[in-house]
Amino acid sequence: MTKRSRIIIWSIVAGLVVLVAAPIAITLGFSTTNPKSTIATKVASALPSGFQPESASFVSSQTGFVLGIANCPPGPCLTIARTQDGGTTWTSIPAPNASLTRPGDPKSSTDSVSKIRFLTINDGYLFGPDLYATHDGGTTWRKIILLGIATGYQVMSLETDGNDTYLIAGNPNVSPSPNYLFISRATRGIFVKSKSVFPTGTPTQISANPYGAVLAANNHGSVLTPISAQIGTLYYQATGTTTWTRIKARCPGGLSANPLVALATPALASSTPQLILGCGGSAGAGSQEKTVVKSGDLKTTSPAIARPPLGGILEAIASPDGKTIAVGASSGATFLYVSIDSGTTWTTAISDSTFGGAPIHDLGFTTPTQGFAVIGHATTAGTRTSIFLMTHDQGISWSEVPF
Predict the structure, then answer these.
(1) Cα separation of 73 and 81, whole Å?
(2) Where are the beta strands (DSSP E) in 46-193?
(3) Which of 376, 402, 383, 390 lies closest to 102, judged by CA?
(4) Residue of 274, 328, 282, 269 whose CA lies nearest to 299
(5) Residue 149 · residue 133 · CB < 8 Å
(6) How far is CA 374 from the centre of its chain?
(7) Residue 38 pLDDT greater than 80, yes or no
(8) In this predicted model, what pLDDT tens digit does every residue of 104-130 receive, in sequence order?
(9) Cβ distance 398 to 391 under 8 Å?
């Protein structure tokens, strides 16, 4: 065999190896893309009829999840809707064998949940009062039992900074009662009770983004402490660290109990997330004085006080970048106030009395321009008692999303 013949034969063999190896690599899933953005489609099916939304969570501008109730044989069932095209189309992924309830409702004899949070397209949680986790995009769910807390405790809040998942367990039927913080690595679902000490309060609310997490603690005091004397305290932990630091941002006149907190991306030339505080003042006749203050360094609060309109009682706040700020309120009607200039001016984006002043919740932004929210609560499949909304223009206009 000549040298030239050997070269030709080895070239043919090499070509066959490439042709054979390529489909093998694709079959095994080798990819240079971020595994967190991998599209999971194997569990998707058509969304059952009569779907009503209760809670929402987005992991990117394209991929989001909405928890609700729909018509399933032989009767209504817990349903999870998923979009992978920014809300244009929706499919259903499996849900655990649990019922849908409202946040804060007494725990029923059956397993029940009211909120959904996904960290990636594969890793997600359903909670409030019970807790379920999936790590395969909804193919399977497992119930998680928190250890080290008394009977009657429920999962009250759950958020993630992408590195860790933070969970608050409390007893809504006993007041005041201590709340407990549990922490898990973001995609593991193994929650351990925190040993951190919060000397002036107990954590009651969590806000988080990829830069860190904030606990809004309510200093309940003793059983004799009047509500008017209870105050709030804020603690911050940077992503990837284990130390909670008390921060000094304050509402005008002090920090009220259970303040509303949003974390935004850092301001220019900073690595610290911006803290947006929603502060509620005196309320009456379906209105409340509201103020919004910002902190860019978690130490000092902006001297300029933003004042959204009076209508409704403050109940939600979100901000992607510190410039766009959305504030939700309700009382007789549902209101959403939006500022795109750091609170200097405000627009009433939503004023809706369709559901008699139903609460606005799960308010959030996936980009500086795209956001979402839920108004009302899902009670009966096929009966319109709640709606899911999205915005694509910084919150100026919102549209109901059909399922």
Answers:
(1) 17
(2) 52-58, 64-72, 75-83, 91-93, 99-100, 112-113, 115-118, 124-127, 131-134, 142-143, 154-160, 164-170, 180-185, 192-193
(3) 376
(4) 274
(5) no
(6) 12
(7) no
(8) 676 666 799 999 999 999 999 999 999
(9) yes
Burial class (CB in 10 A: 0-12, 13-18, 19+), 52: buried
What is the dihedral angle through the alpha carbons of 130, 134, 140, 142, rounded to the nearest 10 degrees?
-40
Buried b / exposed e across 137-166, counting CB within 10 Å, b at 16+? bbeebeebebeebeeebbbbbbbbbbbbbb
Which pair of tokens denotes residue 97?
A: 């064998």
DSSP secondary-structure letter at 197?
Answer: -
Determine the pLDDT at residue 21: 34
Q: How far is CA 142 from CA 106, 122, 295, in A?
A: 22, 14, 39
Going by C-beta distance under 8 Å and a sequence separation of 6 or more, which residues neighbour residue 23? none
Helix and strand counts by DSSP (H, E) for the chain:
1, 29
* pLDDT grade for 87, boundaries at 50, 70 and 90: very high
Task: Give per-residue pLDDT as tens, 272-293.
Answer: 999 999 988 878 888 999 999 9
Give the Cα separation of 15 and 119 in Å (integer): 42
Taking the C-alpha atoms of residue 240 and residue 328, their distance in angstroms, rounded to an integer, is 31
First-to-last alpha carbon distance for the chain, in angstroms, is: 69
- Written as six digits, the tokens of 128 are 């409030």
Tell me which residue of 356, 354, 359 sits closest to 336, measured CA to CA. Answer: 359
Q: Residue holding tokens 């034969």? A: 9
